[in-house]
Amino acid sequence: MTRMLDISGVHTYYGRIQALKGVDLTVEKGEIVTLIGANGAGKSTLLMTICGRPRASAGKIVYDGEDITHKPTYEIVRHGIAQSPEGRRIFSRMTVLENLQMGATTGDPANFDGDLERVFTLFPRLKQRQTQRSGTMSGGEQQMLAIGRALMSRPRLLLLDEPSLGLAPLVVKQIFEVIKEINEQQGVTVFLVEQNAYHALKLAHRGYVMKTGEITMRGSGRELLANKEVRAAYLEGGH
């Protein structure tokens, strides 16, 4: 397998508060890799550090053989990384179509119609809602839009931050099925941050566990699902 993302010894601070403490993590091309952990463990910070906001104060982030640790965010996006952030952060006053157009701003305009059709095939609901203001949609529909907007930039690596947060179980199942399809049918490598450990580990080829800014465990999705510590901390109590 070809290594797509290689994070080594990464430290990140918010002011004087250290959020990441020497994180080592890899994502191979074509994989779904998940990062689980309690709220405040540093999972979202790691995704944002990959995208250059905040910057890693030490360590190295290599994407597709190139050091992107100190590259500006817009350059990182142009290299083929897209993020669907925690809390969705769609443009609520814009329509669904306008949000998807925003996702396509770094791409080739010639690809727009084909990419739009691909997103509408994954999320038929968005096609039905394309002229609707996105802020008036349900939470599940907004999450579909956040993922769809990220896909409009044609990423090779998709960073997903808590895609199941606050959604009904049926919608969560649907979102995870789409993530699997994006990976298997469209060949997009996925790095998934999730509190819903059961769904995430069931889906992922490999997983990591993060506690207070450090990676404490790693293994295949199946190994971590069967691990007694992981079960006690993240599965049997609801997460």
UniProtKB/TrEMBL annotation:
Residues 2-237 form the ABC transporter domain. Keywords: Amino-acid transport, ATP-binding, Nucleotide-binding, Transport. SUPFAM superfamilies: P-loop containing nucleoside triphosphate hydrolases. CDD domains: ABC_TM1139_LivF_branched (cd03224). GO terms for biological process: L-amino acid transport. It comes from the Bacteria. One of its GO terms (molecular function) is branched-chain amino acid transmembrane transporter activity. InterPro entries: AAA+_ATPase (IPR003593), ABC_branched_ATPase_LivF/BraG (IPR030660), ABC_transporter-like_ATP-bd (IPR003439), ABC_transporter-like_CS (IPR017871), BCAA_Transport_ATP-bd_LivF (IPR052156), P-loop_NTPase (IPR027417). PROSITE patterns: ABC_TRANSPORTER_1 (PS00211), ABC_TRANSPORTER_2 (PS50893). Belongs to the ABC transporter superfamily. This is ABC transporter ATP-binding protein.
